[in-house]
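Example record used in the benchmark description.
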Amino acid sequence: MKRLLLSLSALAIASAAPLAAQAAPWQSVNQRQANLDRRIDQGVRSGQITRPEAQRLRGEFRSLNRLEVQYRRSGGGLSMQERRDLDLRFDRLSQPIYVQKHDRQDRDRHDRDGRHDGRHG
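Model output (structure tokens):
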């Protein structure tokens, strides 16, 4: 049941993300990156995101940063198509950050390797 609810909430977020992106004011690539990085950091500090989750999210974040650098080097800046691609990828990364922050996992329940320590059932 929990997985079904989580899946349904992720689906709702995925379908609402394009609408939210259209309604939100335009942000530069640097602003979007800073916002995503801040959300991951806040999730870790609050305990909403576990270390393994943060490592995975930060890995995806670094991949996006590398792609941006590659785009900027290839043509002297970002084309509209490259900007749209980055925006789409930022939206896709935003979704799992939201899900991980709201999945009710508690980092205190996991040891340093991300395994469940068994203290909370």
